[in-house]
Design brief:
Structural class: alpha/beta
Distance between the termini: 46 Å
Radius of gyration: 17 Å
CATH superfamily: Aldolase class I
CATH class: Alpha Beta
Shape: globular
CATH topology: TIM Barrel
Number of helices: 11
Strand content: 15-25%
Strand order of the largest sheet: 1-4-5-6-7-8-9-10
Helix content: 25-40%
Largest sheet: 8 strands, parallel, barrel
Length: 264
């Protein structure tokens, strides 16, 4: 397998996006025919931290997680456990995902579904909407500020809630200018794939109270949710620990019910 770096992930995404051009009309028809998008969670009135549980087979950092998973069955278990949204990794080469996974999950669960991928092109947004996504991840580190704003605007135009992800303070202003539906704070450094929850704690405190804040990566147990809630997280996105659990429903349930601490 090629060396796994952020640039390798982005290069493969560019190739995948270019391949969509010949399917533009097909993708646009599918997006136009898709059911109405479901509202992405993040109400400021919610008493507890929301859980976004992720369907993922493998990752560059963890390796194989659950290669033989059934995405619809896994997502349904997450929802029974209390997940308010499902994230589906659709990157194929390094994560083993697909738009097919997203499509079957969107049909199987009654909650919003997030396309998690390295999105660089408007057609990837159209593709996501046609597959049933209600939200899409945009990574600030992967996009120039102007391009980030363009894609966030295009996402909203396509009926998708843009979850904009940051990892450093220098990315925060550009992310906020792009008007995210929610702002993701990733504990994982995509240059090294190392996780540091303390970096997320510092950034969460800087997210304006008016913007829902999603803590991403590094959540293994309820204590991690409590720690991130104390820093100001409104939601947490959890993947590896619940995807590899023998009882994913119970794994998600164990993370639910942590009281939110409202940021000022």
């Amino acid at each position: 397998m090629p060396e796994i770096t952020l640039e390798a992930l982005l290069a493969h995404s560019r190739t995948r996006a270019a391949a969509l051009k010949d399917r533009r009309r097909e993708l646009e028809r599918a997006a136009a025919d898709a059911p109405e998008a479901r509202a992405f969670p993040g109400s400021r009135e919610a008493p507890s931290v929301g859980i976004i549980a992720e369907v993922k087979r493998r990752s560059p950092s963890a390796g194989a997680i659950r290669e033989d998973l059934d995405p619809a069955t896994l997502a349904a278990a997450y929802v029974r456990g209390g997940a308010g949204a499902i994230s589906v990794l659709t990157e194929d080469r390094y994560f083993g995902g697909s738009l097919g996974d997203l499509s079957v999950v969107a049909r199987a669960v009654p909650v919003p579904v997030l396309r998690k991928d390295f999105v660089l092109d408007e057609l990837q947004l159209v593709e996501a909407r046609g597959a049933g996504a209600s939200a899409v991840l945009l990574i600030a580190r992967a996009l120039e500020p102007r391009r980030l704003a363009e894609l966030a605007r295009a996402a909203r135009g396509a009926g998708l809630a843009p979850l904009i992800e940051i990892h450093s303070e220098r990315e925060l202003d550009a992310a906020l200018r792009a008007e995210p539906a929610a702002l993701g704070v990733n504990s994982r450094d995509l240059d090294t794939f190392a996780v540091d929850l303390s970096s997320a704690e510092r950034l969460l405190a800087r997210v304006p109270a008016s913007v829902p804040a999603v803590a991403e990566s590094g959540v293994e147990a309820r204590g991690d949710v409590e720690r991130l809630a104390a820093a100001g997280a409104d939601l947490v996105l959890v993947g590896t620990s619940v995807a590899r659990a023998s009882d994913p429903e119970a794994a998600v349930r164990s993370l639910c019910g942590v009281a939110r601490r409202r940021r000022k």
